[in-house]
Amino acid sequence: MKTTPPGNYRWIICALLFFATTVNYLDRQIIGLLKPTLADKFHWTEIDYKNIVKAFQACYAIGLLVFGRLVDKIGTKLGYIVSIIIWSVAAMAHALVRTTLGFGVVRGALGLGESGNFPTAIKVVAEWFPKKERATATGIFNSGANIGAVVAPILVPFILGIYGWQMAFIVTGAIGFIWLVFWIIFYEIPSKQKKLSAEEFEFIHSDIDEVVVSSADKKQVSWSKLLKFKQTWVFIFGKMLTDPVWWFFLFWLPSYFQSTFNLDLTKPSWPLVIVYSASTVGSVGGGYLSSWFIKKGWPVFKARKTSMLLFAICVVPIVVAKYATDIWQAVALISLAVAAHQAWSANIFTTASDMFPKKAISSVVGIGSMAGALGGFFFPDFIGYILQTNKDAGHILVGYNIIFATCGGAYLLAWVVMHFLAPKMKPVNLTD
């Protein structure tokens, strides 16, 4: 059997996922960059901002569960169409808001729409890539999250300075509709894609070990049945313990640099650009590492777990960020942590497709990602309380140090829990 197929159409699909994720995070990131401007205009406290973030998180969590189920039912093409229309409209609607409550409402709508991105994208990867390439493909499309976060600190201050905060939401929100045109033109599942060669189709399905035995086997799997498997809980705990750390990096990192090192967020923020650029390297490199181990002959579970342990260890040094005496020392430590997070993320998403058949992947990703979003929903309570308490006492940096220490140990804890739940990540047989 050929190891390298003559066609590469699957990488065009991966590019579409990459750009969708870029837009997803561009729309998500703006609120953190505009926080000083909006807080000044609408008189937000740290608690007000925390509640706005929680509105996004709550709807994102609900949406993940709903979209995970919906995409398994209606398919990946239509699933993405529904998702991006909702989130792009919601992103643009921020420009119409005039109250703090209004921001909570539109952030909730944004969270609901954006929740469709990852359950759909992971299912697309499972449809279009053999297992030995899935972590690499996931790492590549997942790096779009970082590109969106890199572009935002440059683009948003530029638009803010010339056109105002409303136009920043309108311009970035409209980009989703441009992507939608390309998705409709270029995407279809492999069995229906006429541009896909027979050789590449065979390669995509070269390591499939799941067999459809009857028409009944094609039916959707219930959430209650999925929750009976330890493999589902592996994904749930892995996401729940680590996703909140990424939300912190996304929504509070700009204000951390501003309050600690007097970073001017009305200008292009190069420290943020460097941090999120590093996370791009982590996402692609993390996906490549476990795929490289597999190509070297390692069992899939060993490749994933070894890689994820290395990435968990790489987050730990962030606990010494409190000793940073200038902004670039902090940038270096945080860059390592966010790079390790995205490397971890590329692999944990792939574990779902390693352990579950395609018909259940979006549902499992939705359940686990909802757990991660719920963790992200409650973590802002901790962050807001710690920061506001220490801010009132005149020690805001102490608050950030406590949060960094919490982040540093989260991944090792998650790895240990995942390991004991499913040491070898045995694939699930849903026909039993």
Describe this structure in words.
By secondary structure, the protein is mainly alpha-helical. The protein has one domain (9-204, 219-421): Growth Hormone, Chain: A (Up-down Bundle). 78% of the residues lie in helices and 0% in strands. It has helices at 9-33, 35-42, 46-74, 76-93, 100-114, 117-128, 131-163, 165-186, 198-204, 223-226, 230-261, 270-295, 300-315, 327-355, 358-392, 396-421. α15 packs antiparallel against α16 (396-421). The longest helix has 35 residues, at 358-392. The protein starts with 8 loop residues before the first helix and ends in an 11-residue tail after the last helix. Residues 210-217 have low confidence and may be disordered. The chain crosses the membrane at residues 78-97, 163-186, 233-253, 273-294, 306-324, 361-379, 399-422. This is MFS transporter.
Name its key features:
mainly alpha; 16 helices; globular; transmembrane helix; MFS_dom; MFS_trans_sf; membrane
Question: Any chance you could write out the topology, listing elements then pairs?
Answer:
Blueprint: H1 9-33, H2 35-42, H3 46-74, H4 76-93, H5 100-114, H6 117-128, H7 131-163, H8 165-186, H9 198-204, H10 223-226, H11 230-261, H12 270-295, H13 300-315, H14 327-355, H15 358-392, H16 396-421
Helix pairs in contact: 1-4, 1-6, 1-7, 1-8, 1-11, 3-4, 3-5, 3-6, 3-15, 4-5, 4-6, 4-8, 6-7, 6-15, 7-8, 7-12, 7-14, 11-14, 11-15, 11-16, 12-13, 12-14, 13-14, 13-16, 15-16
